[in-house]
Amino acid sequence: MALTEFELIERFFRRPARSAKLGIGDDAALVVPSPGCELAVSVDMLVSGRHFLADADPESIGHKTLAVNLSDMAAIGATPRWALLAAALPEVDTTWLAAFARGLFSLADEHDVELIGGDTTRGPLTLSVTILGEVPAGRALLRGGAKSGDSIWVSGRLGDAALALAHVQGHVALSAEEFAVCAHALLLPAPRVGLGEKLRGIASAAIDISDGLMGDLGHVLQASGVGAMLELAAIPRGAAVQRVLAGPQRELALRCLLAGGDDYELCFTVPQARESSLGAVARDLGLALARIGSISGATGIVVRDESGRALASLPRSFDHFVP
Questions:
Q1: Distance, C-alpha 287 to centroid of its chain
Q2: Residue 64 pLDDT > 60, yes or no?
Q3: Rounded to an integer, what distance in angstroms lies between the CA atom of residue 100 and that of residue 86?
Q4: Which of 38, 53, 66, 135 has a CA between 20 and 30 Å from the CA of residue 74?
Q5: E strands along the chain, which residues?
Q6: CB contact at 8 A, 141 and 77
Q7: Residue 244 pLDDT > 80, yes or no?
Q8: Which residue has the higher pLDDT, 118 or 144?
């Protein structure tokens, strides 16, 4: 016998409330923010065939469904606390749901996030999480604080996820070892929550790289009314991206590195007087941080190649409504 909507929720998603005053099971959840904190709220939607392949491993889908929201919390310097899940499912596949829930809750437990509600319906596979986090009042990382002379930094490395997708789509050929590394970045992104928390009081502006460095850094520049000068050689990348960048498919590698998206690393700006703090942050987290350029008074982005010449054109970042 097929599960009903409420049996589905009860079996796969209901857990006893821990930090919420009232969790799953009523018309709305109740939460009480910590004293002295502001609530940070974000929502993201993932659609099959658009944000993940239809035959993707459901456990990785569960991970990524929450990871993209945790990345938003990281970008604003918030500690994630509670999440709500809305899911449209083409059918009730208990094996798929068990794996999806396993991926979702494994990441939720890692970051002490509680699922406190949501909704389910029948339809094309679509997954949407609303997440709530806390940040000390007045200390959120915003996009509009970058100033001329600030340095620009990114965490981790860029381009692997986009290169994995290019391989799947037949645009580039990766070795089995290269693809395994890049596919891990695509399917199981690591949201930089700890970094976001430690950047409070250090970074002047921040954003997560979901749609590509050019587009997401561009949001910071627009909000701050400044421009940027980037050094291509300083942008961190993996061995596969570097190999393709050095070969005949250089333009494809440039698109992956500068505009590919799905990196879920943080891009942030830092005043010169605070740069010395970043060494301890990187050591504490065991996370590589790279200085990739600086904020300028002019508008727009200039990227200088390995020889110091400005790239004649820059790839355009992902946009859901632009072909």
A1: 16
A2: yes
A3: 13
A4: 53
A5: 37-47, 79-89, 114-122, 126-136, 151-155, 205-209, 227-231, 265-270, 289-296, 300-304
A6: yes
A7: yes
A8: 144
Contacts of 206 (CB under 8 A, 6+ apart): 75, 76, 77, 141, 142, 143, 196, 199, 220, 266, 267, 268, 269
- List the domains of the chain with CATH numbers: 5-136 (3.30.1330.10), 143-304 (3.90.650.10)
Cα angle for residues 161, 224, 228 (degrees, 5° grid) = 60
Half-sphere exposure of 30 (CA within 13 A, CB side): 3
pLDDT at position 323 over 60: no
Strands (E), 123-161: 126-136, 151-155
Distance between CA atoms of residues 141 and 122, nearest Å: 38
What pTM was computed for the model? Answer: 0.93
- Token output for 34: 């910590």
